[in-house]
Amino acid sequence: MPEILRRVRVLIAPNAFKGTLTGAQAAQAIREGVIASGLPASCRVLPLADGGDGFLETLLAKEDGELVQCRVTGPLLEPVLASFGWLQGGEGAGVIELAQACGLKLVARPSPDTAARASTLGLGELLRQALARGPGTILVGLGGSASTDGGSGLASGLGFRLLDSRRQPISPGGVGLLDLDCIDASGADPRLGQTELVAACDVDSPLTGPQGAAAVFAPQKGADPDTVQVLDRGLQRLEAIVTRDLGRSRLAEMAGAGAAGGAAFGLSAFCGARLEKGVSLVASRVGLDAALDETDLVITGEGRFDRTSLGGKVTGEVLRRCAQRRLPCLLLVGSADREMTASVRGMGGQLVRTSGNPPEAGAMTPELAFSELRAASRRAFLELEARSLAG
Question: What are phi and psi of 220, to 5 degrees?
Fold first, then answer.
């Protein structure tokens, strides 16, 4: 890493630390750590998101906007209070974070049953609320979902009828897709054709198969191996009926179609949404590239760093952009797979764990996470400066 003596310009651009800190809170903890080092530094804070936690907060913080609250249907069909953002510029734009309506965080005890039944109906209801304002664009952040229903619940919330062989509505959730016989689009919300929809995906996964939404992500939502197979068959059925009844083919193979349990596929199939990497979309809107061009050191981070972090997550994208510019990059994480240290080093970065002895699951509080992240950033900044002087 290059020498960073004198007054170093530090760009602090973390993701949320899932379950403990928002992106803004993580950035503040890192900033305090850098200042606590006592070394001369100027810090610029630029929290990021990839479509999951913090997507709404990050865009609202950067652009002139307001938060609109409404009651919608939760992942297990219970009423929940959710919000969407409204950005004032241009023709107006809506910002939706799927997890607000149907996130895994809303399921108290994930199980094979909840993984099979969880629905994206609330996402469709949020979309309808945003459509009522007549936006030119709606940005939908995908991540942290409880469901693997391919966006079928979303479609129902927008007026599509997903019917079984008796012309009755199918059951909610991915398990209901096994009974899908036809799709009736006659009642679909006509405003969908008047609005540009962009789905911000946090993964590159296709809809089905060994790398698809069910196989890779449903176990994280409580699914056991049998439920994973059922969900994958349901998604395959949905793809076939969408191709036949809506004339939308090959959508399941798109990178990102499997995001949020296939909600990305549903947004494309039923709403004509364009799929984008969430971190790229956010980076563009908050001006990440310009900020990178005016800094000497970048500090990013997230709660857990694994292989998926390099396939569409904030930390992997920041590392990639730093490598292109040969910028030193510190990556602060709560935990990481062993082999990831070498992967980060190979990209010119340095992986730093915030704690040598991570607490048991559920024991990490926001206060503890903030304290450990602050201490880790101070320690890492001092060590980096010491190596720079020694070199």
Answer: -70, -15
Rg (CA), the chain: 21
Residue 7, pLDDT score: 82
- Would you state the pLDDT for residue 23? 93
Locus of tokens 């209070």 = 81
For the stretch 38-61, pLDDT in tens is 999 999 999 999 988 889 999 998
- For strand 196-201 and strand 182-184, is the pairing parallel, antiparallel, or unpaired? unpaired
Give the domain-ending residue among 261, 279, 297: 279
Tally of structural domains, the chain: 2
Contacts of 121 (CB under 8 A, 6+ apart): 72, 73, 77, 102, 153, 154, 156, 157, 172
Task: Write down the pLDDT at residue 340.
Answer: 87
| Domain, as residue range, for 254 | 55-279
Angle value at C-alpha 240, between 239 and 242, nearest 5 degrees: 65
Task: Let me know if residue 1 belongs to a domain.
Answer: no
Query: Which of 213, 200, 197, 210 has the alpha carbon at shortest distance from 262?
Result: 213
pLDDT for residue 360: 58
- What is the residue-wise DSSP string for 313-340? SHHHHHHHHHHHHT--EEEEEEEE-TTH
Statement to judge: residues 84 and 224 lie in one domain: yes
Any domain includes 3: no
**pLDDT value, residue 3:** 45
Q: 278-286 vs 314-325: helix axis angle to the nearest 10?
A: 60
**Residue ranges of the chain with per-residue pLDDT less than 50:** 1-4
Q: Are residues 243 and 126 in the same domain?
A: yes
> Which positions ≥6 away from 78 have C-beta within 8 Å?
none
Q: Do residues 100 and 160 both lie within one domain?
A: yes
Indicate if 115 and 222 belong to the same structural domain.
Answer: yes
Domain boundary among 279, 310, 339: 279
